[in-house]
Amino acid sequence: MKLQIQHVGKRFKDNTWGVRDFSLELTPGLLGLLGPKEAGKTTLLRMLATITKPTTGTIKWNGEDIEKNPFDLRPDLGYLPQGFGVFPNLTVNDFLRQAAAVKGMSAKTAEQKTEELLQQFDLTHQRNKALSELSAGERQLAGLAQALINNPQLLVLDEPAAGLNKKERENLNKLLSDLSKDRIIIMATSDPCHIDGIATEIAVIIKGELQRHSLSSEKQLVQYC
Ligand SMILES: Nc1ncnc2c1ncn2[C@@H]1O[C@H](COP(=O)(O)OP(=O)(O)OP(=O)(O)O)[C@@H](O)[C@H]1O
């Protein structure tokens, strides 16, 4: 399992660059993508999630260019967009079932996985509520559950801890630590404390450029956190 980001850049219509010449190679583990606001985190994640295409460079999943073969990656991909809120009237249950349908899962597998995730995220009692009726933390957990519905090998998370309280964040960190043992997780955040203790690698992005990439150690993060 390997993700290669090779000299990737993104230029917008107004000619500004959101990401420039970004290169990184990832194997299973949790990468904390750390950067201030407007650093280019979301821009990079949207390219990894095959929502937008790079202007320069190549992204390869297990050796295959995802621009040429997006359907090779999509069944392996889970994506939590930042501040998602596109379907406020959908119930939690329907939200998960819709994600499963989009990912081409059979009805039986979708039902089993929905039950499992609702329990795992303590959302069973909320399953018939609309997303707009949930607390910010619950909505974020529902978003994570939809990202995990297909047991993805590549999990791309944009500020997943936003809106979570301390207990919810601890639960999330434990879950992500477990999940990162046999898959690649990329977790973007502007808050170093959100990746403290769970990131196996850290990449710092500033003004669209990779400033530093290192294996994480608690010592490194303590100075920020
Ligand atoms: N569609 C767009 N058109 C033009 N510029 C854009 C577009 N999307 C993002 N940008 C710019 O690209 C840069 C990177 O933005 P991006 O949203 O990727 O940063 P970020 O690190 O995710 O920030 P935040 O934490 O605030 O979401 C910013 O300067 C932003 O204004």
TrEMBL record:
InterPro entries: AAA+_ATPase, ABC_transporter-like_ATP-bd, ABC_transporter-like_CS, P-loop_NTPase. Keywords: ATP-binding, Nucleotide-binding, Transport. GO terms for molecular function: ATP binding; ATP hydrolysis activity. Residues 3-224 form the ABC transporter domain. Pfam families: ABC_tran (PF00005). It comes from the Bacteria. Gene3D superfamilies: P-loop containing nucleotide triphosphate hydrolases. Belongs to the ABC transporter superfamily. This is ABC transporter related protein. It comes from Dethiobacter alkaliphilus AHT 1. The lineage of its organism: Bacteria, Bacillati, Bacillota, Dethiobacteria, Dethiobacterales.
